[in-house]
Amino acid sequence: MNGEETTPFKRRQMTILMLPNDLLFNCLARISRLYYPTLSLVSTRFRSLLASTELYQTRTHLGRTESCLYVCFRLFTKSDQLRWFTLCQGPFNSKKILVPISSPNFPSASWSDAAIVGPNIYAIGGLVNKNYSSSVMVMDCYSHTWREAPSMHVARLSHSVCVHDGKIYVTGGCKNLDSTNWMEVFDTQTQTWEFLQIPSEEIFGGSKYRSVEYEGTVYVKSEAKDVTYKLHKGRWRTADIAINKGWWCPSLSHYCVIENVFYRYTDRRIEWYDSEKRLWTTLKGVEKLRSFSRVNLVNYGGKMAVVSVEYVFGKKEAKIWCAEIAIEKRQTGEIWGMLEWLDIVFRTNDKSYSLERALATTI
Questions:
Q1: 318 near 347, Cβ under 8 Å?
Q2: What is the rounded radius of gyration, in angstroms, for the C-alpha atoms of the chain?
Q3: Is the model's pLDDT at 55 over the cut of 60?
Q4: Where is the F-box domain (predicted)?
Q5: Is the pLDDT of residue 29 over 90?
Q6: Cβ(64)–Cβ(29) under 8 Å?
Q7: Is the pLDDT of residue 10 over 60?
Q8: What is the pLDDT of residue 1?
């Protein structure tokens, strides 16, 4: 060849981004969602794939769904602005961390309450321009984008929210609360609101209530009246007096229900309600918990997530702690907790951060 050397064949380097979408979905679905916030930084295409419905359909098909934790804070120095975070795996170590969720359509309401149904977080009511609001905003947990949903019939503030059978029950918080508007229910399937009748004048008084789904129904407690009612076969009935006496705290988030067992955080310990003995019992195995100013208990895929705030004395610093506790029901009737991990997941030099709500869903 006239002494000329043949130019070597240059092979084209293959990268994962050259794969078709269906193969990428199959690969990404097998990775824990805790890594998705970091993976979304790889490229615009990755970010789009990680937010797609098709990816989560693949995760479901492969049996790779997992629990995802979301945490909401209020910033008192910024017009009571709410900020949402999600738990993810740190990019440089094995620690889990909270990362902020940024969205151009972030809801403007402050002091709203929230509920989670499937892959959607509903931010309901609150204050908008210093006025009570009836607005409802929904965050898609796949893409972390917000959209509007039908508004409530009545504007509400400091209301209580719980979910039962795919419906969101919103209680109290009206300026002119009466027996006709004390509660309204949102059907997430039909996207419609309707009022629900008050169970008894005995529970009526004030505007603040607490509500929770327990034993396959809705329990409602009046803060003004020492009484709790439950919805039973379409009618309201008075609840067990023992659970009524033990159900009081400045924040409903000190409570959660896991596999039909009611848990509460009180005086540095977690207790569960024994419905047979009709008394509150200490959750064994995790008796000595750290003392925090505000605690949220969350049903985290059958385990318990404990999210709490520690304000560092003498410093402008707040530490957000998170613990994951496995629950074990023993043949003796006892319930034990096993601490799987406990760590600081977020630090800030802004002590105006107030923990408002922690929620979890399986996607």
A1: yes
A2: 24
A3: yes
A4: 13-59
A5: yes
A6: yes
A7: no
A8: 47
How many whole angstroms separate alpha carbon 295 and alpha carbon 361?
Answer: 19
Name 324's bridge partners. Answer: 305, 341
On the CB side of 43, CA atoms within 13 Å amount to: 7
Q: What is the pLDDT of residues 171-225, one digit of tens each?
A: 999 888 888 898 999 999 999 999 998 777 767 766 678 899 998 999 988 877 7
Give, in degrees to the nearest 5, the angle at Cα 228 between 223 and 230: 135
Judge if pTM exceeds 0.85. Answer: yes
Closest CA to 98 of 85, 107, 109: 85
**Strand 81-89, strand 127-128: pairing:** unpaired
Distance CA 135, CA 126 (A): 8
Residues ≥6 apart with Cβ < 8 Å to 99 = 37, 85, 86, 88
Nearest to 172 by CA among 217, 234, 224, 123: 224
DSSP 46: H
Domain boundaries of the chain, sorted by first residue = 23-65, 71-79+94-101+250-363, 103-248
DSSP β-ladder status, 192-196 and 209-214:
unpaired
Strand order in the sheet with 209-214: 209-214, 217-222, 228-232, 235-238
CA distance 125 to 354: 19
| Confidence category of residue 290, pLDDT binned at 50, 70, 90 | confident
Helix (H, G, I), strand (E, B) or coil at 125: coil
**In 3-state terms, what secondary structure has residue 287?**
coil
What is residue 210's predicted lDDT score, i.e. its pLDDT? 87
CATH superfamily assigned to domain 103-248: Kelch-type beta propeller (2.120.10.80)
Under DSSP, is residue 30 helix (H, G, I), strand (E, B) or coil? coil
Q: What token pair was written down for 253?
A: 């988030």
Q: Which two tokens stand for residue 100?
A: 């902020």
Q: Which of 109, 211, 132 is nearest to 167 (CA)?
A: 211
Residue-level pLDDT at 7: 52
